[in-house]
Specification:
The protein is mainly alpha-helical and 591 residues long. It folds into 2 domains: 333 residues, Na+/H+ antiporter like fold; 186 residues, Rossmann fold (3-Layer(aba) Sandwich). 71% of the residues lie in helices and 5% in strands. Helix 19 links the parallel strand 2 and strand 3. Helix 5 crosses helix 8 and helix 6 runs antiparallel to helix 8. The termini are far apart.
Length: 591
């Protein structure tokens, strides 16, 4: 009966999401507001289809956990260093000023000092999931303005650690015993980084050697959930654990494979998270105190918009774009739900305050999307014209991608390296992964016949794709996927045998390299030289044979499935080649 109930509830969630999200996107209100609306309809305060939304929210928080893991994966030390100005100056000042204004206002409203000290920075945090989704839907995420927004969110994510520790310390000083001393959490983080430094890559390498995609996906989830559970066990949040796990793996060779494996789970659970948030909003408080709840949400939005816009103006960002980004980051964040719940459980403030602030945060999320849409319709969006001192924050992707870095791909890579031509390598063999590191080039580990991995490797902008894998089916899939994203890309493909070469030519690949053909010709050339032919005669004979065989191969492509026709063409080709050599013998090439 319980499993049947779970299936019915899943049916409700999926139905509500499939109806609400496309409808809200069509209305220009964004997918997140659609999820929130679906949750409010399903929740106990409207239709009452779902009676225990807290259980759903607890499970759906894994969506935020996986999001934080993926964000952590992007925080490679070199990228953090390049973003240091935006992160420290813009992000840091936003958090400090917003926390001071919000916390000070709450203190003036007669909240205790400890409560205001926690709520100030907590409400200063924006929703990473919400804001990134908004910036993506408004097409500014990759722009200079979007990078500033990401820097603010990044600093906020880093600030979660001290905020959670602050809650623990204040709860202890207020007389409530926390589950564990705060320094236990710090020690756990240090131990995790030591394990990452000396053991994690070796464990992933052993898993990767199985060449089993499902096991690698299971390992990815195990890392995220395992570290998140450990953090919770020592008194910190699971989201913090996932974030730490992501940072640990930011420079790992397996980063892109992990990200590809986690993405589908993240998307589904993140949608469920917003549905659950919508269900937990106590709408009776909205009916009972409409001015207080809506007014509180609007004040929160206005304070954060004003602070962010003012800081961006000081950084020479035009007013319109500064205000636009301020609106996108003006809502309360998903961490507010976590901190409010934890602080209430530790007795830092009453449950009634937690419920009201939770509703205010939820309303701020609901208000942000339509306000952003209204701003766009009234004033438009010209974020791409924003001047930026960090315009080269993103490194340019190499123009050459080598898919498969075994013996064939390595020779191509070594030759390019000798001419100082940068390239991106892709491979699923952990032994080859270590070899690529010697070249100092970008590496993408994982299943090469996956579009998400090809896109991450830069197939959209690459000029040349060298397909050097030794599997015929995989080779064809990579070429088809690459062309579906970038029809102009030039393909240089390794052919395992003549049949494979037929299939590659059938796809329109112009540069087909038969892996044994060139070496066999070289061997034949040396054989002729040992038989007494001059070097010129041997080379001319090999060149004539090569041209003839390649022409014959192209003629045979249309008949690749007809063995009789292929035999006939082969016999004709042999006769033609004999005539060519007979004619050539009458006009011998001098040495």
């Amino acid at each position: 009966m319980e499993s049947e109930s779970l299936l019915i509830n899943a049916l409700y969630y999926l139905t509500a999401a499939v109806i609400a999200v496309p409808l809200f996107k069509k209305l220009g209100l964004g997918s997140i507001l659609g999820y929130l609306a679906a949750g409010m309809v399903l929740g106990p305060h409207l239709l009452g289809i779902i009676h225990e939304p807290e259980e759903v929210l607890h499970f759906a928080e894994y969506g935020v956990i996986l999001l934080l893991f993926i964000i952590g994966l992007e925080l490679a030390p070199d990228k953090l260093w390049e973003m240091r100005s935006n992160v420290t100056i813009i992000g840091g000042s936003q958090l400090l000023v917003s926390a001071f204004v919000i916390g000070g206002g709450l203190w003036l409203l007669k909240l205790e000092g400890a409560q205001a000290l926690v709520l100030g920075p907590t409400l200063a945090l924006s929703s990473t999931a919400f804001a990134i989704q908004l910036m993506s839907e408004e097409h500014i995420l990759a722009s200079p303005l979007g990078r500033k927004g990401f820097a603010i969110l990044l600093l906020q994510d880093l600030a979660v650690i001290p905020i959670l520790i602050l809650v623990e310390i204040l709860a202890q000083t207020s007389g409530e015993a926390a589950a564990m001393p705060w320094y236990i959490g710090v020690a756990a983080v240090v131990l995790l980084f030591l394990f990452n430094r000396f053991g994690l890559n070796q464990v992933l390498k052993l898993v990767a050697q199985t060449n089993n995609r499902e096991i690698m996906t299971a390992a990815s989830l195990l890392i995220v959930i395992g570290v998140a559970t450990l953090m919770e066990a020592v008194g910190l949040s699971m989201g913090l654990g996932a974030f730490v796990a992501g940072i640990m793996l930011a420079n790992s060779n397996f980063r892109h494979q992990l990200q590809s494996d986690i993405e589908p789970f993240k998307g589904i659970l993140l949608g469920l998270f917003f549905i659950a948030v919508g269900m937990t909003l106590n709408l009776s408080l909205l009916v009972e105190f409409p001015l207080l709840m809506v007014g509180g949400a609007l004040v929160l939005v206005l304070i954060k918009t004003g602070v962010i816009a003012a800081i961006l103006r000081l950084r020479q960002v035009p007013s319109r774009e500064a205000f636009q980004l301020g609106l996108m980051l003006s809502q309360g964040g998903e961490f507010a739900f976590v901190v409010l719940s934890q602080a209430a459980q530790l007795g830092l403030f009453p449950l009634a305050i937690s419920e009201r602030l939770t509703l205010i945060v939820g309303l701020s999320m609901a208000l942000t999307s339509p306000i952003v849409v209204l701003h766009r319709k009234l004033w438009g969006c010209r974020s791409e014209t924003v001047p930026d001192n960090d315009a080269h924050w993103d490194t340019h992707d190499p123009e050459v991608i080598i898919a498969g870095f075994g013996r064939f791909g390595q020779i191509v890579g070594r030759l390019l390296q000798a001419r100082h031509v940068p390239f991106t390598a892709m491979d699923k063999d952990p032994e080859h992964v270590e070899f690529v590191q010697q070249f100092g080039n970008k590496l993408y580990f994982g299943d090469l016949a996956r579009l998400d991995l090809l896109v991450s490797a830069g197939v959209d902008s690459a000029k040349i794709l060298v397909v050097a894998v030794d599997d015929v089916t995989e080779s064809m899939e990579i070429i088809n996927l690459a062309r579906s994203r970038n029809p102009q890309i030039s393909i240089v493909a390794r052919a395992i045998d003549r049949s494979h070469a037929y299939r590659l030519h059938k796809l329109g690949v112009k540069s087909v390299i038969r892996e044994t053909f060139a070496s066999s010709l070289e061997a034949a050339t040396d054989t002729l030289k040992h038989l007494g032919y001059s070097e010129g005669q041997a080379l001319e004979t090999a060149l004539m044979f090569r041209k003839h065989d390649e022409a014959l191969l192209l003629r045979s492509v249309d008949h690749m499935d007809n063995l009789d026709e292929l035999h006939s063409l082969t016999n004709e080709g042999r006769v033609e080649l004999e005539k060519l050599f007979e004619a050539d013998s009458k006009n011998p090439v001098s040495a």
